[in-house]
Amino acid sequence: MKITRKIIAAAFAAALSVFMTIPAFAQNAEISVYVNGERLSLDESPRSEDDRTLVPMRAIFEALGAEVKWDGDTETASASLNGTTVSLTVDGGVMLKNGSEIALDVPARMYGDRVLVPVRAVSEAFGSYVDWDEGEQTVFVDDRENPMQGTVVTDEYRYPNYDGSFANVHIFDKDYSEFFGMELLQITDEQGAAYAEMINSFKNAVPSANVYNLIAPTAAEFYAAGGYQTHYTPSIRKIYSRLSPEVIGVNAVKPLMEHAGENIYFRTDHHWTQLGAYYAYSAFINVAGDTIDPPDTFSSEDIYGYYGSLTRFTSGTGGYDLLTRSPDVLRLYYPKVWYSGRSYNDMYLSDYIKSMSLVSPGYGNYNCFIEGDYPIEVYSTGVENGRSLAIIKESYGNAFATWAVNNFETVYIIDYRKFNNYGQTGEYTNEFSISEFHELTGFTDLLIISYPVSVTNTPEFTALSAMAR
Residue 139: in which H helix or E strand, if any? Predict the structure, then answer.
């Protein structure tokens, strides 16, 4: 039906919408649309046609910076961005990109007073990247490739039975015999946006250094039963979409998913194992332009009957009784290179504490890795490549850091919880500024590694932010 130019112009000014190929079973679900990590406010709920999901799209064009025009006589929508012009005519089977025809699976449509055009075809024509998260029912459009692009977390390793929450530790089991304690944490869009802005501040503070960000998922991402999934993957993706192009996000989810059948997380501890940390480290070192040998080429030893932090958290509850029925194996891997370690209380490296060891089996617990949490640990190594790495971390970084000495001449391990009055308790009064530390040490690479608590909890976020200057 022909609609007058005046009506179309008013309708087009109100909204321009598009559709995207998404599985048919998602037709009735609420679909969200994110552009460069920011959720679009849409004035019309998405709908479907012939197994194609339609979502409002004018906001996407505007978010990407495209100029949009409507020709009511020909019922043609056009959008221009950076020298590329895309045109689609209602009910036409092709899209024109700078005059060249591109066949469409489904043509542009008119639904009431709305124009609908295919989001993937249009967005990719402008050089954007489009992805679909089935679990979250979310369309992602980014103007540059996201490190999380195409990452899928499957359900094959999940523990199907939920036994309850004990002191905020959620316990799952397989066949009522193998018990697994997990943290179920959620990252909101607002928390993720604030975290990304803070990470960008680190790059602004040390513009000459290579800056990386790695957000580590907890075990729940891969093992929590249906209905309890944490969906960190889309949350991490949104954060990485908001990072400066000069900050490199590291996809740790993909290699962890690929190895989820291995012992990559403790069942009685909230941390990953050193093997799990290895897979995350391998993702980091690859984007940093280097490689690390396979884990089975490193010397290792096992400590049996390990009960971790979650048994301490659940002490005196029924959760403790469940977790102690599933003791962990604490496997330790030793570096291949020579190293010498020492710890300090201050960023000037003048208040010496003690000599340090990367892997110390005598502790018999997670403190085997870098001997636990010290303000700053410095490791000099036998590597000769001119590169030095500063790692800003909480305890997830401990097992991770043990691998770094294999690739860097010097490794600085900084626990942000030991500076800048963390927790406002008056215990950690020493100041730390990443720009001043860079001036003092000249590190070439900076990695901020966080697990969800660093993103969501105010004391952790505040202390980490205080370093980004």
Answer: strand 138-142
- Phi, then psi, of 24 in degrees rounded to 5: -60, -30
And the tokens for 287?
């984007």
- Give the residue carrying structure tokens 């980490």: 464
Q: How many helices (H) and strands (E) does the chain have?
A: 14, 27
Backbone angles phi, psi at 260, to 5 degrees: -65, -15
* Token duo for residue 432: 């730390």
pLDDT of residue 3: 40
CB 454 within 8 A of CB 394: yes
Below-50 pLDDT ranges, the chain: 1-28
- Record the tokens describing residue 422, joined without a space: 């963390």
Domain spans, the chain = 5-142, 161-467
Q: Give the rounded distance of the alpha carbon of 214 from its chain centre.
A: 7
What pTM, to 2 d.p., does this model score? 0.91
Strands of 176-321 (E only): list them.
178-182, 210-215, 247-250, 300-306
| Protein fold of 5-142 | Copper Amine Oxidase; Chain A, domain 1 (3.30.457)
